[in-house]
Prior knowledge:
alpha+beta, Glycoprotein, Type 4 Pilin, Dna Ligase, domain 1, 2 domains, 4-stranded antiparallel beta sheet, 30% helix, 25% strand
Amino acid sequence: MWLIEAHQQRLISVARASIAYGLKTGRALPVILSDYPPQLQAMAATFVTLERHHELRGCIGMLQAVRPLVQDVAENAFAAAFRDHRFAPLSETELDGLELHISILSAPEPMVFSSEQDLLAQLLPGIDGLILEDGSHRGTFLPSVWESLSSPRDFLNHLKQKAGLSAHYWSDSLKVSRYTTSVIHAIYR
């Protein structure tokens, strides 16, 4: 989903406001949809990623569009700051220099492949986000993960591990879907 600069800035403002609101109230910013243009009311799936000093500080999102874009950003910004179980809740002292990334996801498209080699050959480094599923095991990597795992094999092996599988796991029941993202970013000052 492509948005004009003014709409991108509104989403950044909503994410920041939701984090600030969360610091004061312990809840995500309530969103009144009619206050936003139709483009920001469209159903969309997002991830909000927070980084401090180029290190992950929180990342929460949705793989399927289940609510309007602006509401999804408000909820995910709050959740990334205060509900990512890997980190303590964000404190006000961490806001200065906090990097905020909003990834707006395209609809996932199932991939068709005959083997692990075939799957690896189809991957588009730097472009594809992947969802890997097998039984109760599920994991995703945003396209930005290619920055640290640049080879298709490393990307896939680490995604398997994230899903709770062995890096060398392979099964005919394995399902993989791909998606792309539009990313908006800002830094707190």
